[in-house]
Specification:
Metallo-beta-lactamase, Chain A, RNA endonuclease activity, hydrolase, MBL, seven-stranded mixed sheet, binds zinc ion, 31% helix, 451 residues
Length: 451
């Protein structure tokens, strides 16, 4: 049996995940993500395949670079089935609605038309069904589908397609085993082909088993100075991880009780979706949630509802903690807080995740002494701290370890979802250390698989 795998997005780049598998008489897609950052205008280009010919779209997880073009696919005639985990389905709707507004804003600036609207999103949700990890679903042409826990964000999955004893595993994004809420990534030992993410293919992260203690120290020091701790955080997973950690520290009285503001309406919606799906947490957390414990709620926590309230956060006297998006300070409510707090030597800005080149977050890590925010020069006097222990991605070692588990059956690994240098480095390591064939497909490549 032969199939053809087409690499349409996230090949030779990080965003816009999109793969097509032609199994003979039917076509299925894995992910249909938005291209973000450079090359954004390509989201408006037509699909290179005919959307109405696709029978199934399988979604790895709810990040927008994996789902952001789904409403467009539907608008352009896709009438098939969309399958993901139940949690991914629950997260997808608020994330798509949020992305729609950001995209509309960018479209207006770039003089482009509407990409899709809320009706298209509703239509996409109507085609969507959620399944559990490990559940087997029959697809056309004798292919069977199983979703395996990727440990990246709530509900994230690897897609395993099997036929006649052979399998293709698309990893989506792979978690680093760092979330306090999620179980570790499922170990795959029998893949024939692996389509594998390589975001951190050339980075090795130091072990960070002390991260909760480090967070505790940063909170304590900032409070002792009488300052505010500002943490730019992504709305999905990172914010919930941190809410859970801060709650734990406060409940256990390891840090003083101070107000904690979560300034992101999206994060509030996402948190509700998390609580509605306790089956995706670690067994311990799940038991606690099912017993009625509010793992994200504590007396000091307040969700900020609107922009006016966001400004008023600073009227609260004394030390406090603020979590706000975006995670790389590339926009959003966090900018207003940075403008207020960066000049204050008593305050701390804590960076907890990867900061892309060119973002404000990156410039702060690199030691910028002044920044221009809303056309205003802002001196940076606040303490800038970093804590990478909550990263949602595997590093180069972790990725290699993942392939090692299936090295005896893997005939080829395709490294995608990475900058070219990271992908090339990881592919080389897989070849050298594991003696497994590893290549870096380019966007538009097609490969015939014995599947
Ligand atoms: Zn992701």
């Amino acid at each position: 049996m032969q199939s053809t795998l087409y690499f349409y997005g996230a090949a030779g780049m990080v965003t816009g995940s999109n793969f097509l598998l032609d199994t003979g008489t039917s076509k299925l897609l894995v992910d249909c993500g938005l291209m973000q950052g450079m090359g954004e205008e390509r989201n408006w280009e037509p699909f290179v395949y005919e959307p109405k010919e696709i029978s199934h779209l399988i979604v790895t997880h709810a990040h927008i670079d994996h789902i952001g073009r789904i409403p467009l696919l539907v608008k352009k005639g896709f009438k098939g089935k969309i399958i993901s985990t139940k949690a991914t389905m629950a997260l997808a709707e608020p994330l798509l609605l949020d992305a729609m507004e950001i995209v509309a804003h960018a479209a207006e600036k770039g003089g482009r038309g509407e990409l899709y609207n809320a009706r298209d999103i509703a239509e996409a949700m109507g085609l969507w069904s959620g399944i559990g990890y490990g559940e087997e679903v029959a697809l056309p042409d004798g292919v069977s589908l199983t979703l395996l826990d990727a440990g990246h964000i709530l509900g994230s999955a690897m897609v395993r397609l099997s036929r006649q004893g052979r399998s293709i595993v698309c990893t989506g994004d792979l978690g680093g085993g760092n979330s306090p809420l999620l179980p570790p990534t499922h170990e795959v030992a029998d893949a024939t082909y692996v389509v594998m993410e390589g975001t951190y293919g050339d980075k090795v992260r130091p072990e960070d088993s002390q991260r909760r203690e480090e967070l505790e120290n940063v909170i304590e020091e900032t409070i002792a100075r009488g300052g505010t701790l500002l943490i730019p955080a992504f709305s999905t997973e990172r914010t919930q991880d941190l809410m859970y950690e801060i709650r734990t520290l406060m409940v256990e009285k390891r840090v003083p009780s101070v107000p904690v503001f979560v300034d992101s309406p999206l994060a509030q919606k996402i948190t509700r979706a998390f609580v509605a799906h306790p089956e995706y947490f670690t067994p311990e957390i799940r038991t606690r949630v099912e017993a009625g414990e509010d793992i994200f709620g504590f007396p000091e926590l307040r969700f900020v509802e609107n922009a006016e309230e966001s400004r008023r956060v600073h009227e609260t006297a004394g030390p406090k903690i603020i979590l706000a998006g975006s995670g790389m300070s590339s926009g959003g409510r966090v900018i207003g807080h940075e403008r207020k707090l960066l000049p204050d030597p008593k305050s701390t800005l804590l960076i907890v995740g990867y900061q892309a080149a060119g973002t404000i977050g990156r410039r702060l890590i690199e030691g910028a002494r002044t920044l221009t925010l809303y056309k205003e020069h802002i001196p940076v006097r606040a303490k800038i701290e970093t804590l990478y222990g909550y990263s949602a991605h595997r590093d180069s070692e972790g990725l290699l370890e993942f392939v090692n588990k299936t090295a005896s059956t893997a005939e080829e690994v395709f490294v995608v979802h990475a900058e070219p240098a990271a992908a090339a480095f990881l592919a080389q390591r897989i070849r050298d250390y594991l003696s497994v064939k590893a290549t870096v497909p380019q966007a538009g490549d097609k490969i015939v698989l014995q599947f």
